[in-house]
Amino acid sequence: MSSLLKNLFGGKEEPEGEESLMSDPSDLATQPTKEELVPNSFKKGVPHSPYIFGTGSSIGVQRDHNEDALFAMSTILVSNSIDLPMGLYVVADGMGGHLHGEIASEVAVEAMSSEVISKLQLFSRHRLLNDQEDAVQKLMSDGIHSAHEAILEQAPGGGSTLTAILILNDQLTIAHIGDSRAYHISNDGNPKVLTTDHSLVQRLQDLGQITSDEAAVHPQRNVLYRALGQAEKIDEELITSPIPSSGYLVICSDGLWGLVPDDEMVNIITSADSLQGASKELIQAANTAGGPDNITVIIIQIPEESNF
Q: What's the CATH number where 272 sits?
């Protein structure tokens, strides 16, 4: 995780034994700032991201260690006369029964987050405004491939799902592989699964060979046909769309969605006092239902358009 922290907080160190080249602030003349050069976020006060989130993770009731991992960050990119709200949210579920499952999910989340954050620093306003969709899709693809390579190198034999959401400017981009899920929940309580489960039972459902009720109790319901670290090459799912005008985004491992029905999930999120409280309640609901697997969730609230 040290490389990720360097990307977030690192900077050039001053040479040992030398004084900083920065001038004393008292020596600098104070000049009026041109109004048109002040980013919108500074006009409103301290710059901040409009995306608030809550997270939760549990080993469950029947497991003795946690093979899930998550990363969540909301921030704002401020440069010259622009300010770009952004958020990066990642959930990975180490594949049970595979060697180094907990290591696989951890290195996957670190590699994905580090890759995206480091390259976001290189984005220019021109690039965002002129080819944002292609540029961001490539960024997310590079991130998930970096996660795959990290597992092959650092946790050979391990495997993991990975579902990541990047919010940048007015665009939502998802990179996904496996059977963790991303949802959008509208303000009126309608849930929509945004990703595809890359599982055997989902494929059988798509072919009309089993029902959703049969899939829920199928003996091979945990078998995946796409995952990180399990083949030389991967075929990830990439989704790009405008950011919904309101509601919630949810990323969770199958330890949650496999135990807590969608309507109960919606009720908990929309009635909780806070997103962190909702995350805790969702974890409790999955554990109350038996908690046979690790449980991880990230909930992001999308502000009303008028709040931007």
A: 3.60.40.10
